[in-house]
Design a protein that fits this description.
5-stranded parallel beta sheet, Rossmann fold, about 10% strand, alpha/beta, 7 helices, about 240 residues, 8 strands
Length: about 240
């Protein structure tokens, strides 16, 4: 998979389905062809029944703007157990912006509709793409994550970004997840944007998911959340202190 680091600094050209988004003067810019029916580059609201309610809660958190750490993502982020959330993040004035069912295009819509606007978190920890895996190719998922990163750079230009690799799940062959994470990792510059992959320690020597990590094939158990927390602790502490 080609690196995506250029994505956050260059004007974007997306070619999805029959729609070409190229603008005059951009012919020399990199393009990307979306071949799946689902286009992660097109912002749309989430389709789950609770999406509107949770989006309003996130807008309320945005208006309050009383956080230094933002966790942004889908249900895996939204479902952090309270005690573990406080253990790993409580000292950073955290806010949870996870919404169950979200894909890359839903997070793009949320940001387009005002989430995080006017806020100044020190760090945004992003985990998104799990729900795109069954609908998009690995390259498309990584591309979608890159678009979210690009948008976050526009909405919160002073924030550092901690990109978390998509976790292994029983519904997706791990080679695909690994390929997605390679693409996400290529976005990181090692300073203002860093990548961590706690999911690697959720696998045994043969690449199988360890027992007691997943509650239902996708979502994490408390043990899984502890692995996530331990896996990002040092990097997050360093980024928050900088």
């Amino acid at each position: 998979m080609r690196g995506l680091g250029w994505l956050v600094t260059m004007p974007l050209v997306v070619v999805g389905g029959d729609q070409a988004a190229a603008q005059p003067g951009t012919a020399a810019e990199p393009t990307f062809q979306v071949t799946s029916k689902n286009d992660p580059s097109k912002p749309v609201p989430g389709g789950v029944r609770w999406f509107g309610r949770e989006h309003q809660k996130c807008l309320a958190r945005t208006r309050a703007a009383d956080f230094d750490l933002c966790l942004l993502g889908d249900s895996i982020t939204a479902m952090w157990p309270g005690n573990l959330f406080n253990k790993y993040f409580g000292g950073y004035r955290p806010a949870n912006f996870g919404i169950g069912g979200d894909r890359c295009e839903n997070v793009l819509w949320r940001l387009q509709q005002g989430e995080l606007a006017g806020t100044k978190p020190k760090v945004i920890m992003l985990l998104i793409g799990t729900n795109n895996q069954g609908m998009n190719t690995a390259e498309e998922v990584a591309w979608g994550v890159g678009l979210v990163v690009k948008r976050l750079r526009e909405v919160c230009p002073e924030a550092k970004l901690l990109l978390v690799g998509v976790f292994p799940s029983r519904g997706t062959p791990y080679p695909k997840t690994r390929s997605i994470n390679e693409g996400i990792a290529s976005l990181a510059d090692g300073t203002t944007m860093r990548f961590v992959d706690p999911g690697l320690t959720m696998l045994d020597e043969d690449g199988a998911i360890l027992p007691e990590i997943l509650s239902d094939g996708v979502h994490l158990t408390p043990r899984g959340y502890a692995i996530w927390g331990d896996g990002v602790a040092d990097t997050l502490a360093a980024m928050m202190a900088e």
